C-alpha cells in the first residue's frame, strides 16, 4: 500500500511485463532478477503516487505506471527491458475513504452519461435546425421560380 499526497492510503495491484535482453549483464548485477525488478518497479511507482493527490491518481494512474517503468537505467544496467507496468486494481485502505471514492466514481460516471445525453440532444436539435434551413432555402427558391414564371406568363399574355 501507499499514500497519495493528500494522505489517502491506497492498496494497489498491478502487473508488469519484462524480459531479459542481456544475460551476461543480468548475471553481473543480480542473482535475483525477478525480485529486483519487482522491488524497483514497486518502489518507483509508490514514489510517483506519493507525489499526486487521489484525484490526480485516478485521472493519471496509467500515465504514472508508464513513467515508473520507462527511461530508467536500473533496468538497462541489469540487461532487462520493461515493456509495461499496468495497474489492475486499486482501492482505498480505509472503508470511509473507499465509500467517498465510490461516490466520486459514481458522480463521474453520471456526469459522463449526462454529457453524452446532452451531446445527443444537441445533435438532434442541430439536425432539426439544418432541416428548417433547408426547407426555408427550398421555399425561397420555389418563390423565385414561381415569381419568374408569373412574370413570364404576364409578358406572354401581354400584360
Features:
159 residues, alpha+beta, three-stranded antiparallel beta sheet, 17% strand, elongated
SSE arrangement:
Blueprint: E1 2-3, E2 9-20, H1 23-29, H2 33-49, H3 54-69, H4 73-77, E3 80-92, H5 95-157
Antiparallel strand pairs: 1-2, 2-3
Helix pairs in contact: 2-3
Short description:
68% of the residues lie in helices and 17% in strands. The chain has 159 residues and is of the alpha+beta class. Strand 1 and strand 2 (9-20) form a beta hairpin.
Question: How does this model look, in words?
Answer:
With 159 residues, the protein is an alpha+beta fold. The chain is 68% helix and 17% strand. It has five helices and three strands; from the N terminus they run ββααααβα. It has helices spanning 23-29, 33-49, 54-69, 73-77, 95-157; strands at 2-3, 9-20, 80-92. Strands 1-2-3 form a three-stranded antiparallel β-sheet. A hairpin with a 5-residue loop joins β1 and β2. α2 runs antiparallel to α3. The mean pLDDT is 89.
